[in-house]
User: Which sequence fits this backbone?
């Protein structure tokens, strides 16, 4: 996604966001028995005279969330490149180093027995390069409770926690975000900048803002002031229902400028229910790389503007490939739903159950065609990142956690496991065993010998390297025996495997 000032996601110390709603009765509730609940006081129609009564009911169910994290950091040698670089051991040692990290955010209780909803990034180390050792939920009165992670979903940026006590908790419920209209009043409650319970008000600026290319990058936009730390907090309508979950802001400074985004309740509520039940979140997947149909592209193809998405490439063996979809096709309809900028192909397919057979309509060579496709299961975010790494048309960053170690320090290579998805990307058989080069240090001997990203290392010094640890072991043994080089067997797509000697550094 491209914005003039950039989309600021709420990470670590929180992030500006907004909230959800689904259509249930209003107000923070205390379950005194199965039928009892606090009656809600709704401000008069039109511009409210005050938000005080509504806030007093809702605020007890909005909580602050903090975490204590153990985050792995790259082990850099401050003496690298000097005569002292090996003075304190080989390259400063290859053992990983850690630092303690923290995050602050917001959340809200959705049941009397203590289920709490928040953003996934509030309770997950950045880049997934670490572990969360402790999660604490703080009530508005300052009472703290240790929280247990029930489930999380990175694709939708949602997480569910559980806290416990003898008495029932006050809670709020989701409303129906589909009933929200531009201009409706909303209030956001959260923990901006760690200040504690803070209430802001505003209106809905847009009920459907597509901000990105992801399957769930659809938001409610609001001008209610939200800042870092509001992440995971609720956005309420005037009935006291949660219609959104604050998630991000658009800002040149990192502070609120009146453009905030919330995950709609329509999207969030079903996912939260699944996470509470401990179910795996399964989404549909076609296996295509797509881009919007621009004005120039529509004119060149003779198509209507703002309709459809262009297929740049098709993943071998994926659902789209099996159905005969080709690069250059323009997909205009999925299961009877038109593909538009507000209703993207990714969104439509992600919300179809894997295994479902659906019709897909597309344009090819100027003619409209119809194909039937059995929807596949969307891989995890980590698997998708690995697939994209070897997309010939993309140059993404190397994933976190691939730096360092004997291979990185001594060969100047960053390698990852050879997964089935990467095998398909590289066009190698399922029997191929090895590790894949993710990046090459341009100053290394490996770079001088022509090794490049996407090459598969089949063996080192005649020992098979079916895993990263196996390659690490061979390199370490070579160093211990005083060798100055390692003989690698390298396979490149479409070429026979060759042996390449690479000097150690």
Assistant:
């Amino acid at each position: 996604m491209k914005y003039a000032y950039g989309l600021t996601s709420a990470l670590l110390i929180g992030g500006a966001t907004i909230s959800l709603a689904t259509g249930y009765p209003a107000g923070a509730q205390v379950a005194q028995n199965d039928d009892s609940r606090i009656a809600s006081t709704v401000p008069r129609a039109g511009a409210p005279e005050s938000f005080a009564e509504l806030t007093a009911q809702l605020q007890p169910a909005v909580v602050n969330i903090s975490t204590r994290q153990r985050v792995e950091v790259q082990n850099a040698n401050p003496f690298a490149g000097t005569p002292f670089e090996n003075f304190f051991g080989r390259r400063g040692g290859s053992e990983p180093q850690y630092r303690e990290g923290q995050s602050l955010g917001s959340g809200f209780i959705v049941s009397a027995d203590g289920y709490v909803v928040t953003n996934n990034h509030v309770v997950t180390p950045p880049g997934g390069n670490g572990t969360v050792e402790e999660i604490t939920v703080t009530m508005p009165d300052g009472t703290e409770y240790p929280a247990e992670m029930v489930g999380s979903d990175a694709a939708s940026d949602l997480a569910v926690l559980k806290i416990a006590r003898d008495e029932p908790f006050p809670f709020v419920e989701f409303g129906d975000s589909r009933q929200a209209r531009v201009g409706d009043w909303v209030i956001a409650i959260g923990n901006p900048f760690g200040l504690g319970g803070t209430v802001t008000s505003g209106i809905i600026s847009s009920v459907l803002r597509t901000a990105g290319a992801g399957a769930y990058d659809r938001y409610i936009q609001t001008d209610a002031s939200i800042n870092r730390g509001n992440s995971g907090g609720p956005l309420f309508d005037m009935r006291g229902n949660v219609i959104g979950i604050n998630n991000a802001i658009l800002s040149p400074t990192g502070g609120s400028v009146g453009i905030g985004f919330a995950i709609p309740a329509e999207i969030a509520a079903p996912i939260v229910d699944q996470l509470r039940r401990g179910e795996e979140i399964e989404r549909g997947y076609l296996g295509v790389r797509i881009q919007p149909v621009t004005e120039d592209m529509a004119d060149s193809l003779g198509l209507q503007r703002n309709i459809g998405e262009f297929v740049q490439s098709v993943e071998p063996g994926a659902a789209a490939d099996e159905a005969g979809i080709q690069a250059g096709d323009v997909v205009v309809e999925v299961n009877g739903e038109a593909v538009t900028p507000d209703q993207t192909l990714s969104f439509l397919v992600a919300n179809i159950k894997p295994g479902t057979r659906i019709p897909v309509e597309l344009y090819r060579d100027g003619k409209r065609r119809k194909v039937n496709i059995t929807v596949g299961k969307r891989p995890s975010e980590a698997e998708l990142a690995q697939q994209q790494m070897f997309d010939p048309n993309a140059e993404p960053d190397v994933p976190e956690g691939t730096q360092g170690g004997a291979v990185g320090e001594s060969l100047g290579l960053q390698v990852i496991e050879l997964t089935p998805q990467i095998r398909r990307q590289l066009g190698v058989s399922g029997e191929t065993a090895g590790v894949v080069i993710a990046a090459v240090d341009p100053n290394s001997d490996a770079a001088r010998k022509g090794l490049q990203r996407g090459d598969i290392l089949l063996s080192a010094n005649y020992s098979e390297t079916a895993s990263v640890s196996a390659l690490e072991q061979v390199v370490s043994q070579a160093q211990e025996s005083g060798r100055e080089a390692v003989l690698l067997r390298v396979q490149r797509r479409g070429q026979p495997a060759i042996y390449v000697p690479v000097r150690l550094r």
In short: The chain has three domains: 1-279, 284-377, 402-503. The domain at 402-503 is CATH 2.30.42.10 (Pdz3 Domain). Confidence is low (pLDDT under 50) at residues 1-26, 30-39, 78-94, 392-404. The two ends are 40 Å apart (CA to CA).
